[in-house]
Design brief:
Layout (H helix, E strand, L loop, with lengths): L11 E10 L2 E4 L15 E3 L7 E4 L2 H7 L6 E10 L4 E3 L5 E3 L7 E12 L18
Length: 133
């Protein structure tokens, strides 16, 4: 339930797209050799000299970027906003926030809260308890 989440100071809520492969929740896009593994109800922090992590501010932005590939999932998440304005891509350099999909925000850590079930008819405008785009 969205309303059940309390919002500590400095913490925001959004949506994270992950891939479920061999039972692990992995980043949707990977630019490094060290694979992050996300855990439901557990914080996943950015790796040193990499990141920050990318999160979508609202469900509309996440749904626009979402692919219906069998292994792809959208999760509601809590995150700590990053002060960075670039995503470091290991050996690939970096990209600015402007070079990322619309509605992307950058995070120092992400905690997956619950998987979004599209069969529940989550309305595009249903952002109660989450930051609006």
């Amino acid at each position: 339930m969205i309303g059940a989440y309390e919002k500590p100071v400095g913490i925001r809520y959004g949506f994270k797209i992950v891939r479920r492969i061999d039972g692990k929740l992995l980043p949707c896009i990977v630019y490094n050799s060290t694979m992050l593994v996300y855990k439901p109800q557990g914080k996943t922090a950015r790796l040193p000299k990499e990141g920050p992590l990318c999160v979508f501010r609202c469900i509309d932005a996440a749904k626009y970027f979402y692919t219906d590939a069998a292994e792809t999932e959208i999760w509601r998440c809590a995150y700590k906003p990053s002060q960075d304005r670039y995503v470091h891509l290991n050996n690939y350099g970096h990209t600015s926030l402007a070079g990322l999909p619309g509605g992307t925000v950058l995070a120092d850590w992400v905690e997956l809260l619950e998987r979004v079930d599209f069969s529940s008819n989550l309305a595009d405008g249903d952002k109660k308890g989450f930051d609006a785009l």
